[in-house]
Design a protein that fits this description.
Largest sheet: none
Shape: globular
CATH class of the largest domain: Mainly Alpha
Strand content: under 5%
CATH architecture of the largest domain: Up-down Bundle
Order of helices and strands: HHHHHHHHHHHHHHHHHHHHH
Number of strands: 0
Number of helices: 21
CATH superfamily of the largest domain: MFS general substrate transporter like domains
Radius of gyration: 22 Å
CATH topology of the largest domain: Growth Hormone, Chain: A
Structural class: mainly alpha
Length: 462
C-alpha cells in the first residue's frame, strides 16, 4: 500500500513538473495580479492610518478621546471588515470578482471622505473608520480568491504573496504620509489609489472559475485565452480541469470529508493569523514604541514597515520552494521568541544601553518573522485548499472569524490586556499562543505546495 502511494506521489510530482513548463506565468497574469492588489494597498492604508493619526490627534487640543474611543478608533475597522468579508463573498459568487472589487471602492471613498469632512467630531471620525473597514474586509477576500484562480499551480504561492506585499505598501504609505500630513489630510491619500483601481480593474479578465460556476464555458475560455496568451492547447486542458472540478453542484460546507476538512483548515489558519497579535502591533505601532521609550516612534514605524516589505519579497519566492507548513512553523516559532524577549524588556524596565536596541529591534524582528509565513500564507492557503463549490462561502466565514478576533484583540489590548497584565504579560501571552499555533499547524495541516486545486481536494478526501 505504501509503495503504491509513493508511486502515485512520484507520478503526481512528475506531472506537476511537466505542467510547470507548459503553464508559464504570462504578462497578463502578472498584470491582473498587480491590478487587483491595488485593493490590498487600500486595505493597508486603513490598517496603517490609525498609528500616525492617533499620534497626531494627541497633539490636537480640539480632539479629546477617552480610552474607549481610542480603542474603537483603532479596532472598529476590524469589526466592520468581518461584515465586509461576508458581503464580498456573496457578491463575488453572484456578480463576479471584478465587479465586487469596484463596489468595494465605495466604502473606502465614503469612509475616508467622512473622516476628512468630520470637523473634528469623534463620532464622525470613528464612523468613517467603520465604513472603511467594510472595504478592508472585501480586500482580504476577493483579491486572494482571484489570484489563486488565475495562477498556474507552481506559481500560486508566489503570486498570492503579492497581496501581502501590497497590504504592507499601504501601511508604509500611511506611516510616511503621517510624518508629513496631519490626520485630516492623511485621509485623502487613499483617494489616489481608489481612482487608480477604478480605472485599471476594467482592463483585466474576469476569473475563469467564476464563469464556469455560472455555466458560461465560452466566457471562461475567452478569459483563459487572454491570461494564457492564446495558447489553445493549454487552455483546453485547463478548461477540462475546471469542468471536472465543478461537476459537484453541492455548496454545502460539510457535504463531503474533503469539504469539511478544507473548511476547518481554511477558517483555522485565518483565525490563527489574528491570534498572533499582528494587528495590535500594526494598529498601535507608534504608541507601543513610545511606551518602550523610543523617541522618534514614527521613523521607527517606517523602518519596521520597510523591513517587513523586504522580507515579504523574500517570502514570496520561498513560499513555493519551502512549502506552506515549513514557513508557517518557522514564522510562528520566531515570532514567539521575539514576543517573549519584548515581554522581558518591559519586565526588566530598563531603557538604556542594550535594552534600548532590544526595544527597537523586537517589533521589527517580530514583523519580519510574521512576513516569512503568517503574513501571506493564510490567505494563499485558504484560497487554494477550498474547493470551488464552497470557496466564496467558506472564505467569507473564515474572514469573518479572522476580523472578529482582530477586533477583540485590538479593542482589548489597551483597555483590558495591558491594564490587567502590563505590557510584559500581554506580549508574553501572545508568545505562548503563537507557539501553540505552530504545534497545531505541524500536527493537523496538509501541504499544498505545487499541487493543483483538484489534487488538493483529492488529498483531503483520503
Amino acid at each position: 500500500m505504501n509503495s503504491d502511494r509513493e508511486a502515485l506521489i512520484s507520478q503526481d510530482n512528475s506531472s506537476t513538473s511537466s505542467r510547470n513548463e507548459d503553464d508559464p506565468v504570462t504578462h497578463a497574469i502578472i498584470t491582473s495580479t498587480l491590478t487587483v492588489c491595488i485593493s490590498s494597498i487600500l486595505a493597508g492604508l486603513v490598517i496603517g492610518y490609525s498609528s500616525p493619526a492617533l499620534a497626531n490627534m494627541e497633539r490636537d487640543p480640539d480632539i479629546k478621546m477617552d480610552a474607549l474611543e481610542l480603542s474603537l478608533f483603532g479596532s472598529i475597522p476590524c469589526l466592520t471588515a468581518a461584515v465586509g468579508g461576508i458581503l464580498a463573498g456573496y457578491l463575488a459568487s453572484t456578480i463576479g470578482r471584478k465587479r465586487t472589487i469596484l463596489i468595494t471602492l465605495v466604502p473606502y471613498a465614503l469612509g475616508f471622505l467622512l473622516i476628512f469632512y468630520s470637523k473634528k467630531s469623534i463620532a464622525s471620525i470613528i464612523l468613517g473608520r467603520a465604513i472603511t473597514g467594510l472595504g478592508m474586509g472585501s480586500s482580504f477576500v476577493v483579491p486572494p480568491m482571484y489570484i489563486s484562480e488565475i495562477s498556474p499551480n507552481h506559481a500560486r504561492g508566489f503570486l498570492g504573496s503579492f497581496m501581502q506585499i501590497a497590504v504592507n505598501l499601504g501601511i508604509l504609505f500611511a506611516y510616511i504620509g503621517g510624518r508629513y500630513l496631519d490626520w485630516k489630510y492623511l485621509a485623502l491619500l487613499p483617494c489616489v489609489f481608489i481612482a487608480l483601481q477604478a480605472i485599471s480593474v476594467s482592463q483585466i479578465p474576469e476569473s475563469p472559475r467564476y464563469f464556469i460556476s455560472k455555466f458560461d464555458r465560452p466566457a471562461a475560455k475567452r478569459s483563459l485565452m487572454e491570461l494564457r496568451q492564446n495558447n489553445s492547447n493549454l487552455v483546453n486542458d485547463l478548461l477540462q480541469s475546471l469542468d471536472s472540478s465543478t461537476d459537484s453542484t453541492s455548496t454545502s460546507l460539510f457535504s463531503t470529508k474533503a469539504t469539511t476538512k478544507a473548511f476547518f483548515m481554511a477558517c483555522g489558519i485565518l483565525i490563527m493569523q489574528q491570534f498572533t497579535g499582528i494587528n495590535v502591533i500594526v494598529f498601535y505601532t507608534e504608541k507601543i514604541y513610545q511606551d518602550a521609550g523610543i523617541e522618534d516612534s514614527n521613523m521607527a514605524s517606517i523602518v519596521m514597515c520597510m523591513v517587513n516589505i523586504g522580507v515579504t519579497f523574500i517570502s514570496a519566492k520561498l513560499v513555493d520552494l519551502s512549502g506552506r507548513k515549513t514557513l508557517l512553523s518557522v514564522s510562528g516559532t520566531l515570532m514567539s521568541v521575539f514576543l517573549a524577549i519584548f515581554a522581558l524588556y518591559f519586565h526588566v524596565g530598563k531603557t538604556d544601553g542594550v535594552w534600548y536596541y532590544t526595544a527597537l529591534a523586537c517589533p521589527m524582528l517580530y514583523i519580519m518573522s510574521f512576513a516569512i509565513g503568517f503574513g501571506a500564507i493564510p490567505s494563499i492557503y485558504s484560497s487554494e485548499i477550498l474547493p470551488g463549490s464552497i470557496k466564496e462561502k467558506a472564505l467569507s466565514i473564515g474572514n469573518f472569524g479572522n476580523w472578529t478576533v482582530g477586533f477583540f484583540n485590538v479593542l482589548s489590548f489597551n483597555s483590558i490586556l495591558v491594564p490587567m497584565l502590563g505590557n510584559s504579560g500581554a506580549f508574553l501571552a501572545y508568545a505562548i499562543v503563537v507557539l501553540a499555533e505552530v504545534a497545531i499547524v505541524r500536527r493537523f495541516y496538509v501541504e499544498t505546495r505545487g499541487k493543483s486545486l483538484e489534487q488538493i481536494e483529492t488529498q483531503l478526501s483520503e
